[in-house]
Design a protein that fits this description.
The complex is a heterotrimer of chains A (242), B (247) and C (386). Chain A has 242 residues and is an all-alpha fold. Chain A has 11 helices and 2 strands; from the N terminus they run H-E-E-H-H-H-H-H-H-H-H-H-H. The chains are: A mainly alpha (242), B mainly alpha (247), C alpha/beta (386).
Chain lengths: 242, 247, 386
């Protein structure tokens, strides 16, 4: 019964995907592989892809480190003013984007990769904080206290005991942070400089003229395929370990 | 141990609150000073728009919860071997650019005659926000061990009672996180209502129009600050109450 | 499209080179030796001056334009002609000119040339975001038709020069057999059209376009901004709104018309010309009350770092041959009268160049003060919110 429900939800999730994948093989109604060729030939797409990827990886890495440590500190020491981490979630994205733009101009910070990255991290940290904190909440303090009694210091306790316990939350938070960066448009377009383009920007600039280049669909299909392969490999490897 | 939080706090202070301060300045009429902009955006017509946003965000959150919880439960507690794979499969659709996804949804909805309706907007919103509800709930559920559940059965409790008394309460932090991560951004959402809903106006739409179409930095800032303050206040009240549920 | 323009370009290039050769040979044969020495001296002078001009050009250029709005091969040719390395020419595309204004307003955009629609040029001039154009550095401006040299939003083209122009009218799918011929169909619920195609009609997002068309429907003059007229406009818009699917820009009405989610859209001619290449069951026309003539113009941001290169770029694109090739590629009308002889086929397409009698009924986008802009923004905000 539950399986059926889960299945239906996945159908809902993947229907649009199927659509995107299908259109990457079609041209005027007939089958073609030319969009896939285009993916590797079009330099603009390759650059945008590279930019988006480095942006997403870096911002995820940094925001996860910052957010996890903060969540831990807040939970353990019952710190106040948690709402510091909520405002980035509340603020409308356009307001945040413009505030960053004004800030950068005020400080004469050059617009480009780093200006975008810093903006992404600010936003992602909040999400990571909320997710990891939810995961850590309710854990038996005694495990950590035992570790401390046995002579480990705070940092060791954190690394050896808390972190593994928090792992599923950290992973969940990383996945979310990654997507938030990878797919981000509004903040990115306002904090970027001439010449730096991410994949969402590329797609938007084409879409707004009405027609999305099927090459982008092809790129997406490739990405999905690669991710699925990686995921499958990961599952097999971790299964082996157990 | 407090110092663990300092890097993150410092980062936010510099790269979020300082910029936000500039927005606050604009809301007061920078480079001049005036309270007018605040008064202007407190007009009754904006209340209807705010109501629109709240309704949309609330419905989105409810549907996200209804869809996400069972799936999160299944992945965390039933799926043993396929746990990680399923998790990735949940996230995978979001590798696709938001715009491509929305266009795909549009193409699917058009023959169904659902384009530019409120339903279309809800479908689009739920689709985009699902992982934000699912992943936190999953993270919370995952720490419940099979043995806890089995123990409960052994003690004679029915599956439903086990769920209500043992499983669900322990997943509360995740649920609360999910609700926050869906409801709040959804309130300020503007792209999905705009693309799928045609004329459905939200606070997000108004803010966007003010800043971008009318180039009115002052009113845009004022409405943003009021909005942020209102939501933070509501959130604070909610957290105080929910805090009693959190262990 | 691309092959045709390449052929044309080759034709023009060959003509130019032949001309040079003929001229050179002629000069060689018909000059006496004294003349020959004089010619050689002059040629050296010219070469020196060209070198100087080239050195005055910064080796960098950053352009921001609408997407799909240039034949990108022209950038390579520009690079060769001026010596600016091709990889230092940054050509970025935006989808919403309001972003450009916001970036310019916020401080340093980093761009040297931006191409903006007239209403944005006006806003940018008012906010002091643009540098004056040095006409001496843009000699090709003499080829531009005078109708476009003194637009309402920038008298005397001090801060902008028209790049391309087009019209705003209505697009409809073949299902709408009666087509859109009068604004009564679009604004008068009793006429029946709105009810028949309820929720399948969109208007543009740009307030000026919506309100000017409403005024044309009401029979008001385009520069009538009196409070009473504005009230009538608001009433008309409120009456219309329930039948609309929404207010849609290109990114919504283009796929909407193509897929059938929308049947009728207030639209820009260039988009429909492009759409018809993919999908022929859509038509475009200007209603009998008229439509907008809009222009997209070159502008130089005040803090542009490479102003000489910017002027050179503008000058290059105003060259009649270049303009013709560009127009043919992007299928838009250009203001360069001297280029029109090369693009007769475009001139005959009523979507690209409306016939003269239709043009007479059309209006240039009006120039409006900040106060009026506030008024119309407020009206649209209120209409949308209800």
């Amino acid at each position: 019964m539950m399986r059926l429900f889960v299945f239906i939800v996945f159908v809902f999730l993947y229907a649009p995907i199927a659509f995107v994948i299908a259109s990457s093989f079609m041209e005027d109604g007939s089958f073609t592989l030319k969009w896939f060729e285009n993916v590797f030939e079009d330099k603009k797409i390759a650059t945008a892809f590279k930019n988006s990827l480095s942006l997403a990886i870096l911002s995820t890495l940094i925001s996860v480190i910052l957010g996890t440590t903060a969540a831990y500190a807040y939970l353990k020491t019952n710190m106040r003013f948690e709402s510091i981490f909520y405002t980035p979630i509340v603020i409308p994205e356009i307001t945040e984007a413009l505030s960053l733009l004004l800030f950068y101009n005020f400080t004469s910070f050059p617009l480009g990769f780093y200006s975008v990255l810093l903006g992404h991290i600010a936003f992602n940290v909040a999400f990571v904080f909320v997710i990891v904190k939810a995961r850590l909440a309710g854990y038996e303090r005694s495990i950590e206290e035992a570790s401390l009694t046995l002579g480990a210091n705070e940092i060791q306790t954190f690394l050896r005991v808390t972190l593994p316990l928090a792992m599923p939350g950290v992973i969940a938070a990383s996945l979310i942070a990654f997507i938030l960066s990878w797919d981000n448009f509004i903040k990115t377009i306002f904090t970027t400089g001439p010449g730096f383009q991410t994949l969402p920007m590329l797609i938007w600039s084409q879409a707004v003229r009405g027609s999305i280049n099927p090459t982008l669909n092809a790129l997406t299909s490739l990405l999905l395929l690669i991710s699925m392969i990686l995921a499958y490999l990961y599952v097999r490897i971790s299964a082996k370990r157990k | 141990m407090r110092f663990f939080a300092y890097p993150a706090i410092l980062y936010l202070l510099v790269l979020f609150y300082l910029p936000l301060f500039i927005v606050i300045l604009y809301s007061f009429g920078f480079p001049n000073f005036s309270l007018n902009y605040y008064f202007e955006v407190m007009r009754p017509i904006y209340f209807k728009v705010l109501l629109n946003s709240i309704i949309l965000a609330a419905i989105t959150t409810v549907f996200c919860f209804l869809l996400a919880y069972p799936v999160a439960y299944y992945i965390a507690l039933r799926a043993q071997r396929w746990k990680n794979l399923l998790l990735v499969l949940v996230i995978l659709p979001f590798w696709i650019s938001f715009l491509l996804r929305t266009y795909a949804i549009m193409s699917i909805l058009t023959p169904l005659g659902l384009m530019f309706t409120f339903t279309a907007v809800v479908i689009g919103m739920v689709y985009d926000y699902l992982p934000f509800m699912l992943l936190p709930i999953y993270a919370s559920l995952e720490k419940i061990t099979r043995s806890q559940i089995d123990a409960s059965y052994t003690l004679g409790a029915s599956p439903w009672k086990t769920f209500l008394k043992i499983t669900f309460p322990q997943s509360m932090p995740g649920v609360v996180a999910g609700v926050i991560l869906v409801f709040i951004p959804a309130l300020g959402e503007f792209v999905v209502p705009s693309m799928l809903g045609g004329v459905y106006t939200t606070i997000g739409t108004i803010t966007w129009d003010l800043f971008l179409r009318y180039h009115d930095w002052w009113r845009g800032s004022a409405i943003s600050i009021i909005y942020i303050a209102a939501v933070l206040a509501a959130l604070a009240i909610y957290m105080k109450k929910a805090g009693r549920i959190e262990i | 499209m691309v092959n045709g323009s390449r052929r044309d370009f080759l034709k023009i290039a060959v003509a130019g080179i032949t001309g040079l050769i003929v001229g050179g040979i002629g000069g060689f044969f018909f000059g006496s030796s004294a003349n020959q020495r004089r010619i050689l001296e002059l040629e050296n002078e010219i070469k020196k001056l060209e070198k100087q001009a080239q050195m005055a050009l910064e080796k960098d250029l950053k352009v921001w334009n609408w997407s799909y709005y240039i034949n990108e091969a022209l950038l390579d040719i520009f690079s060769e002609q001026t010596g600016i390395p091709r990889d230092r020419i940054v050509y970025d595309e935006f989808d919403d000119p309001n972003y450009v204004i916001t970036r310019l307003e916020a401080g340093r955009s980093g761009y040297d040339v931006v191409i903006l629609p007239s209403y944005c040029v006006e806003i940018a001039i008012r906010k002091g975001l643009l540098a004056e154009i040095d006409k001496k550095l843009v000699p090709n401006i003499k080829f531009v038709d005078e109708k476009f040299l003194n637009p309402p939003h920038d008298p005397d083209s001090k801060y902008s020069i028209v790049y391309m122009w087009g019209s705003t009218g209505f697009a409809w799918r073949s299902e709408v057999q009666e087509g859109v011929t009068t604004l009564k169909q679009i604004f008068d619920p009793d006429y029946g059209f709105l009810k028949k195609y309820s929720k399948k009609i969109t208007m543009l997002e740009e307030p000026l376009e919506v309100i000017c068309f409403a005024k044309a429907y009401l029979g008001k003059k385009i520069d009538d901004w009196s409070d009473s007229t504005m009230e009538e406009v608001k009433e008309a818009l409120l009456k219309q709104k329930p039948y609309l699917a929404g207010y849609a820009g290109t990114e919504k009405y283009y796929p909407g018309l193509k897929s059938g989610a929308i049947y009728v859209a207030q639209a820009y001619n260039g988009d429909i010309a492009r759409l018809r290449e993919e999908f022929s069951e859509v038509y475009y026309g200007i209603p009998e009350e008229g439509g907008t003539i809009w222009t997209d113009s070159f502008c130089i941001p005040k803090d542009a770092a490479h102003k000489n290169a910017a002027h050179a770029f503008i000058n290059f694109l105003l060259d009649p041959a270049v303009s013709a090739v560009n127009s043919k590629y992007i299928r838009y009308a250009n203001p360069v009268r001297a280029s029109w002889q090369f693009i007769e086929e475009l001139l005959e397409d009523p979507i690209v160049y409306p016939p003269e009698d239709v043009q007479d009924k059309m209006w240039f986008e009006p120039s409006i003060s900040d106060e009026i802009r506030n008024k119309i923004n407020t009206i649209m905000l209120e209409v949308k919110a209800r």
